[in-house]
Design goal:
With 112 residues, the protein is mainly beta. The chain has a single domain (4-108), classed as Transthyretin/hydroxyisourate hydrolase domain (Immunoglobulin-like, Sandwich), CATH 2.60.40. Helices cover 5% and strands 46% of the residues. It is globular and about 40 Å long.
Length: 112
């Protein structure tokens, strides 16, 4: 399993959000570098943003969820065509960053 994982639950329909592209970025002072990407499966999960052997240094990272196409596929208008979550890691442990999503709001937390 990747050191950083995620999943998306569409709270407006009570189901996982399938087919959402996600990018993982690493902060380099003032710039961001894409270090991984994936697409959510039928369970709304991406477990392979990074290779299993990749261990990131503690630092600041960003996950970008491309939600516009997902909502278009549901024929649903959204206020958030993209969601960016910036977070900091403190060690080389596993980090799970879930997204609870609906067309007009979202929330996140550090999962397990």
């Amino acid at each position: 399993m990747s050191q950083i994982t995620t999943h998306i639950l569409d709270t407006s329909i009570g189901k996982p959000a399938e087919g959402v592209k996600i990018e993982l970025h690493q902060s380099n002072s003032e710039n961001w570098t894409i270090i991984g990407s994936g697409i959510t499966n039928n369970d709304g999960r991406v477990s392979d943003l990074l290779d299993n052997d990749t261990l990131l240094e503690p630092g600041i990272y960003k996950m970008v969820f491309m939600t516009e196409d997902y909502f278009k596929s549901l024929k649903t208008q959204t206020f958030y065509p993209k969601v960016e979550i910036i977070f900091e890691t403190f060690d080389k442990e596993h980090y799970h960053v879930p997204l609870l999503l609906n067309p007009f709001g979202y929330s996140t937390y550090r999962g397990s």
